[in-house]
Amino acid sequence: MNLILPIDGQIPDEIDNREKACEYAASLAKEYKSEVCLVLSRRESVWFKRDCSLKFETTDKTGIKATPHMSVRNKQFVFGVGV
After folding, report:
1. Contact (Cβ atoms closer than 8 angstroms) between residue 29 and residue 35
2. Would you say residue 36 has pLDDT above 70?
3. Between the chain's N and C termini, which has fewer beta carbons within 10 Å?
4. How many Cβ atoms are within 10 Å of 53's Cβ, its own excluded?
């Protein structure tokens, strides 16, 4: 599991399940006053708002390639992947 913050972060070793990881990520969102993305796997992510509430969860569907992207003002930008 990884965190995407204003800085990249790792989950401490003592956090060993999804529930604890979500609690930890939510607490960091509140502490940093920033949105936080908890990456549970290549297919699953959980986003938290600045107030530590759940923003949304994503799960990529089997057979659909997950592509790195970002959105700015409702416009989506897809990142190319180098070879």
Report:
1. yes
2. yes
3. C
4. 10
